[in-house]
Specification:
515 residues; Peroxisomal Thiolase, Chain A, domain 1; six-stranded mixed sheet; four-stranded mixed sheet; 13 strands
Length: 515
Amino acid sequence: MGGYPVLKGASYVLAVVPDMVLKNGTTQTTEKIVNPDSEYLKELPKHLRSYEDAVSYLPNQIYIGNEKPEVLRGIEFPFFNTKWENAKRDGKYGQIMPQDEFYGLMQICDVFELVYLEKNFAASVKEKLAAQDLLTEEQLALLDRNESTEEDIKALVENEHSEGLYDGGKLVGAVKRAHDVDVNLSAHTMLENIVAKASSVLALIELVKKAGVNPEDVDYVIDCCEEACGDMNQRGGGNFAKAAAEVAGFTNATGSDVRGFCAGPAHAIVHAAALVQCGAFKNVVVTAGGCTAKLGMNAKDHVKKGVPVLEDCVAGFSVLISANDGVNPVIRTDIVGRHTIGTGAAPQNVISSLVTAPLEAAGLKILDIDKYSPEMQNPDITKPAGAGDVPEANYKMIAALGVKKGELQRTEIASFVKDHGMVGWAPTQGHIPSGVPYMGPLRDEILAGETKRAMIIGKGSLFLGRMTNLFDGISFVVETNDGSGADEGQAVDEKQIKSMIGQAMREFAKGLLEE
């Protein structure tokens, strides 16, 4: 295996935030500006789910590792009609946190005292968080600083341009602006960024708990969310990675941010794998928090069609990439697909550059990949919104290329989709569903001998930033570790190195004397 880096662990988290759907999702905030008396805004609250309903929703249970992705194939569509009986808050890869506790975590992650919570609400949240064994006593003690009454919080929102935090429709907190005139430090932006940071922190903590990661062993952290933090002089200066790693206790790590819209996570994992394989770092974590702007993004269509608001969760994930241990699945850094500047945006060209081109270069065929993980959006969310089944569309395009290349018969397309694809289960938070939700289940499948090789595919729409009309994408292959590439260098100590150098010097000197 030539010392390829390995996938050593993954975590996935959700925070159910129905009030943030109403107050912070851009579909709703825009509607309040352009059509404040709309029927949609009146109807929307009736379609919000309870925390219990969100927990018992099967795609969410799959996301945190309590069920395998293939279980969805046996469930009648739409999935929201099925309440999963074995649903739990805690999962193999992470957890589903309720809104009130998430507000508490936001305040703990806030180092500039911008998050204010009503004192009784804060006391209640502290008690709940203390029972979760997530945070240190020192971190929990930060919630004791709250002395604000309901009137104080209301004044912050009405008089000081603060963003309110609501729970069950009741104002329980606020996020203040960090600067009087800098829009990059407005309350709106600070709330978005603190939410992204807090959900990343939760994923990092769950990575430590569920994957058995020692935070002190992590050398480097890469954040790949779709937010940007900075001030008026450097709007996207960063650094979410170090900000989140600090709270999560990764004391020996440094880090930086990687951006690429929805393709960001796949780019970041390729970066991490390269950093490990070249020897710069032994343990690199790729992490990302979620996005308030996308909450209820498709809710207009959902409300119109009588569907619950399923985009009610802020998501996060973390993945650990380490030096080859001879056991964990390897990331084949020599099989990387990339959408180049000259590729173009035609779907066939995109899939060719990301799938068939790297496989052909490695002497592999489409059927040599057991599973493909492209944009794993949940069709429960995308179908009512008119976007169809996104993963299925990707699989059909891959299969069509296989037919064109003579690797598949046209009659085999349906079976290819079933055998080499999966039903989507991830929240539609841009970067969150882009290939990486499968990395946790994939690691388990490979270690269990159920899957040999898979391809993770990240794709992104760069035109959204109005800097280019180019499309984007990158892919990589993860496969079984044959044990041959274990990092033997880890076993070579300093004395051995000195001995080897000494022996070489003696042989060199002996050669000179003989001449």
